[in-house]
Input
Amino acid sequence: MQMQKKGALIVDVRFQPDFEQWSIPGSINVPYIEGGLLAKLRLPGFKKKNVNFVNDVQRVADLKQDIILVDIWGGTLLSEPPKNRGLTDNTKGAGSLPAAFEMYQIGYTKLYHLAGGVNQYYEDAYKYPNELPEPDSKWPGDLEWFGYRQFVGKDRARGQRDD
Output
């Protein structure tokens, strides 16, 4: 939040329907993954990488701006990317780290990554209500079926998930 107050842009790279449901206050959505009606219905295999991602980012952020990239669960640069992509949906695991890589390739250098992603932000917002802005929407992470619970008892830094 300190970086955001100094002009950093929070770019949420999640699928647009997820961003519309809940997001970090003040963030903007530039999806790294997209899809039509069937993808929005959560049918596997209908999401795809947004081939215009870099162009979309260039419309909202200049090369010298501090940019914080977020996705649903974060990830790490300390180990190999997870190899847990679904059999029917090759977009699983795609998010802020591959987006940052593509942005870096065209000249963005002030890139930051929110470890733990949007889920971690919401969890921290509820733990520390005086330090983080109150979210605009209800976090669905406390529901057992939602993605955040996939990490219970697992090592997020190693990319362990149930899906």
Q: What stands out?
A: The mean pLDDT is 76. The chain has one domain: 2-158. Strands lie at 9-12, 28-29, 33-34, 48-49, 67-70, 111-113. The first helix runs from residue 2 to 5.
